Amino acid sequence: MAPPPQLIRVVDLETTGPAPPAHGVCEIGWQDVALGADGRWALHGEGGSRLVNPGRSIPPLTQAIHHILDEQVADAPFWHDVARQALDPWPRRVALAAHRATAELEFCTPALTRNADWICTWKCAMRLWPECPSFSNQMLRYWRKPEGIDHERGLPAHRAFPDAYVTAFHLRDMLNEVGVAQLIEWSNQPGLLPRVRQGPDRGKDWREIEDESLERFLGDRDIDVRFSAETELARRRGGGAVGRTTLQDVVL
Q1: Residues 139 and 240 in one domain
Q2: What is the 3-state secondary structure (H, E, C) of the chain?
Q3: Does 50 share its domain with 132?
Q4: What domain range includes position 215?
Q5: Residue 40, domain CATH
Q6: Which of 11, 38, 76, 247: CA 20 to 30 A from 184?
Q7: Reported pTM
């Protein structure tokens, strides 16, 4: 009998707010992407979701996004009772993935994930598909139109399983283009923004702006903006590149 396939578990959390301990998880969803015998990655299994009792009331501001009500989670298990089982399909898991994974990392601590590597599909999408108008999960869905995606299964947006399901298609295509190691490496760095997103040069490719404008971004408080400006400066000095990393670049 063939051994079970290696997999990456895509997860999505719905929460009462962005940061514990002030906020808690009220739903987790997951969808696995597995490496097939043919060397290609594909969605694996049905995925799933669980409601979670966040241990506090869900503010109207977040209810307006995910529409999860206090009475729906009142009898649900707490996060520490469900997290490890949902996050760690041992021993097959290679890594975890999420879109804008920094949000999930606030709640999915190393203790709960057994120090898993993470792939951030938001950061990787900016590297692989910089021409996309923006990089939200849903924009990528409708701009890319991934092969095989079931439209209804990916709805409603902003619920844990449908969002994880959509993200899994982005991850599948990323894995089949550049592989696990490259995606983890990009995910461990700040986001490399393809375009300037504020000020008079908003919307321009970093390569298009003047040196004086570029220098102003080097001190920006946003780590992604600062990293993008630093990378463009390195390119101008002959030591880097901004935008899509080609397969040739990865091999070299």
Answers
A1: no
A2: CCCCCCEEEEEEEEECCCCCCCCCEEEEEEEEEEECCCCCEEEEEEEEEEECECCCCCCHHHHHHHCCCHHHHCCCCEHHHHHHHHHCCCCCEEEEEECCHHHHHCCCCHHHHCCCCEEEHHHHHHHHCCCCCCCCHHHHHHHHCCCCCCCHHHCCCCCHHHHHHHHHHHHHHHHHHHCHHHHHHHHCCCCCCCECCCCCCCCCEHHHCCHHHHHHHCCCCCHHHHHHHHHHHHHHCCCCCCCCCCHHHHHC
A3: yes
A4: 206-251
A5: 3.30.420.10
A6: 38
A7: 0.92
